[in-house]
């Protein structure tokens, strides 16, 4: 490794440390499979809850009968 000495005049021309960290943000905490799985399950649960809250007219607009909406909303969360 080669180390050079920086004079005070040359140090003023270097970029401040804040500019370097802004250009290269530090990585956040690693996301493993558990948070991703949990986020997926929670979003599916919310979508299915919203599906149950739709009126019959709204269901007709998206091409579903109330029985089909009920069946879709009652599926286990691990099934799409």
TrEMBL record:
Domain of life, source organism: Bacteria
YjiS-like domain location: 47-69
Lineage, top ranks: Bacteria, Pseudomonadati, Pseudomonadota, Alphaproteobacteria, Acetobacterales
Name of the protein described by the UniProt record: DUF1127 domain-containing protein
InterPro entries xref list: YjiS-like (IPR009506)
């Amino acid at each position: 490794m080669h180390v050079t000495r920086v004079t005070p005049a040359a140090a003023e021309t270097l970029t401040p440390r804040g500019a370097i960290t802004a250009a290269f943000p530090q990585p956040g905490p690693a996301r493993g499979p558990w948070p991703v799985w949990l986020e997926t399950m929670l979003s599916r649960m919310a979508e299915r809850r919203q599906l149950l809250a739709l009126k019959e007219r709204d269901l007709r607009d998206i091409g579903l009968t109330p029985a089909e909406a009920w069946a879709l909303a009652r599926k286990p969360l691990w099934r799409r």
